[in-house]
Amino acid sequence: MDRPLSRFEAMGLSALGLMSVIGLWEALSFFGIVPGQFLPTPVAVIARFINLFTEPFAGFTLLQHLGSSLLRYLYGVLLAGFIGIPLGLAMGWFRLLDDIVTPLFEGLRFIAPIAWVPFAALWFGTGIGGPIMIIFAGAFPPCLINAYRGARFVEPRLIEAARMLGTGHRRMLTEILLPASLPSIVAGLRVAAGLGWQSLVGAELIVASAGVGFMMVQAQASVQTTTVMAGMVAIGITGLVIDVALRQGESLLLRRLGVD
């Protein structure tokens, strides 16, 4: 069996992989294998990325587009958590509610968030409501499913001990069920955050008048490939920052709960 890599070695291999991809990209552009109009060099993309922080495109700078995107994203993910987590916990605790909600939920959760775009456009136009609806559609299922699983797999001995002591439903939910389900809930929020960010970008390609996705559509219409790819860089970096922040929050919470 191969020995596990050290953190330094893993980082080195990751950097090597990234540099290999950038090198291949540079070679394809430099030697004209792919026309520069459709695949600009990495240097051109980075230069455009930096330039967009001060030069408005499609009415706003890159930071303003990102701010608009992040605001919609925050609303959509918070709404998904606010509804999905309590509903999932309740479904895991009350069998009747589980039987009522599950058939409807199972029928809807396999509809891709982007499939809701036509309804979002009809109902909300290019206002903030449409993208929030698409983000909610992507983030809601992981919130509900993980909260449900957390509630269903609470240690039976904890529930039995609480019942023997005469604990009521409200205290059972707040003092037994919720703390025991937190690791699963946090894992669900991390998945929801990633799906919500992907759903946001898809929504902004169609039902938005600002945001990174909207900026990319406007750039594509005028064949400004460097701007399109700069938008992709912004999306990737922002998504990575969100995921790293959630990883750190998850690790901190699990350490405080004493979960390995």
How many helices? The count is: 10
**Overall average residue pLDDT:** 83
Q: What characterizes the major β-sheet?
A: none
Named CATH architecture of the largest domain: Orthogonal Bundle
- Structural class call reads mainly alpha
Low-confidence stretches: none
CATH homologous superfamily designation of the largest domain: MetI-like
User: What would the CATH topology of the largest domain be?
Assistant: MetI-like fold
Count of individual domains: 2
Distance between the termini: 24 Å
Secondary-structure element series: HHHHHHHHHH
Helix content: over 70%
* Overall outline: globular
For the secondary structure, the number of strands is: 0
* Percent range for β-strand residues: under 5%
Radius of gyration: 23 Å
Task: Describe the protein in words.
The chain is mainly alpha-helical and 260 residues long. Helix content is 77%, strand content 0%. It is built from ten helices and no strands. The longest helix has 36 residues, at 169-204. The chain starts with 6 loop residues before the first helix and ends with a helix. The model has no long low-confidence stretch (mean pLDDT 83).
Annotation keywords:
single chain, 260 residues, mainly alpha, MetI-like fold, 10 helices, globular
In short:
The chain has 260 residues and is an all-alpha fold.
Itemize the secondary structure elements and their pairings.
Layout: H1 7-30, H2 42-51, H3 62-93, H4 95-108, H5 117-124, H6 129-152, H7 156-164, H8 169-204, H9 212-221, H10 225-257
Helix pairs in contact: 2-10, 3-4, 3-6, 3-8, 3-9, 5-6, 6-8, 8-10, 9-10
